[in-house]
Structures
1.
Amino acid sequence: AQSVAQPEDQVNVAEGNPLTVKCTYSVSGNPYLFWYVQYPNRGLQFLLKYITGDNLVKGSYGFEAEFNKSQTSFHLKKPSALVSDSALYFCAVTRRGTNAGKSTFGDGTTLTVKP
Amino acid sequence: DGGITQSPKYLFRKEGQNVTLSCEQNLNHDAMYWYRQDPGQGLRLIYYSQIVNDFQKGDIAEGYSVSREKKESFPLTVTSAQKNPTAFYLCASSSSLTSGSYNEQFFGPGTRLTVL
C-alpha cells in the first residue's frame, strides 16, 4: 500500500516571502515522488520529480523540493513567492518497480500568496 | 502540438443514463489513467491501463467501465450504477521508465459531469 499526506489544507504567504508546502509519504520500497499544480477548472501540470540521485530537485517556475528518506518527506519550496503562484498543489508517490503503474495523490494544499 | 484532449468539457446527464467521456493522447505514452476530483477530496483513481487491451481497477471503480483498444484512446463510461457521478473527471498519461515504473503524468483539461 502507498499513501501521501499533505498536512495543511491551506498555506498563506506574503508575496516575496519564502513558501513551503509539506508532503510526507508511505510506500513499500523506493519511491518516485512528484509535485503538480492545478489552476481553477484546469488539469494538473507537472512541476518537478524525484526519481534518483540528488535529493534536491529543481523544477518549473523556480520551485524546488528536497527528498528526505529518513523523514519520508518531499516538501515543495520556493525562495520568493509570487501572487501568480496561488493555486492548488498536489504531491504524488509511485512505487518503484515492475508494473508499478499506480500513483497515489495527496488531498492537495491551497496556496494563497497575498500582495 | 502534442498532448491530451478530453471531450466534452461540460456534460449533462439525466439520472439512469450511461455516458462516455473521451480521452485521447498523441504522446505515445503506454500508461493512461482516469481520476475523479471532488471538492476537498483531491484525486481518486478510477481505472488505469499500462498497455493496450489491459486495464486495472483503481480505488473507486464501481459504477465505471473503460476500454483500451488503441494506445491513443482510453474512454471512460459512467454507468447508471454510479450513485453520485457529478464530479470533475481528469484523464492522464505517462511514459514508462526503465525501472518498470512510470514517469510524471500529463493531464487533460478535464470534463465536468453534472447529473440533472
2.
Amino acid sequence: EPEVTQTPSHQVTQMGQEVILRCVPISNHLYFYWYRQILGQKVEFLVSFYNNEISEKSEIFDDQFSVERPDGSNFTLKIRSTKLEDSAMYFCASTRDRGSNEQYFGPGTRLTVT
Amino acid sequence: KQEVTQIPAALSVPEGENLVLNCSFTDSAIYNLQWFRQDPGKGLTSLLLIQSSQREQTSGRLNASLDKSSGRSTLYIAASQPGDSATYLCAVMNTGFQKLVFGTGTRLLVSP
C-alpha cells in the first residue's frame, strides 16, 4: 500500500541553524501539507501546497518557514533560523483531492533544537 | 475559529468492552471529519473519513457517526482489544479551507 515517507526520522540542530525536512508524498496525490505537534499538544496545521504554490498557511508559518517541491516526488519544509520553540514532531501529509479523500500522514520527523 | 474538543481525555477498559469516544466542534460548517489513531512517538493513521453529507461510516470494528448540526461525532469501537491501545484523534476540515483542525485526543488503554 502506498505511503507517505519522511526523512530524517530525528534531526538535532543548534539554535539559529537552517534545517530542511523532507517528505515523499503518495505518487498520485495533488495536495501536500505540513503539520507539527509540540510534545503534549495538539497537531497544528502549518501550510498546504497545491499546483506548485502555497494555498493556505497558518500564523505559525512566518518568514522563517518555506516549502518547495523541487522535483516530481519530494516536498520539503525549510526552517531558516531555528528557535528552541521549533522543537516538535513535523508531519507531512498528502491527499488526492482536497475534501473528498483522506489526508495520509507520514511517520514524522522529530526536530530537536538545542 | 474552529475549536475541536475530545472527551474523555483518557479511557481505560478491559479487553472485550465496547466503547465510545466523543468529539465536538464549535463551527458546524465543516466539509468533512476524519478520525485518526496515533501510537506513541509515531505518525497518524487514518481510520475513517466522514463527509458532511454522511451520517456514519464503518470499517471493521469501528463505526463513526456525525451529527453536523449539533457539532458532534462519535467513534464506536466494538469488542476492544489490547492492540487498540493508542491515542485517537478527531480532525475537521471547514468548508472553504484545506487544513485539518485537530482535537487533543483520547488516550485509550485496553487491558488484557
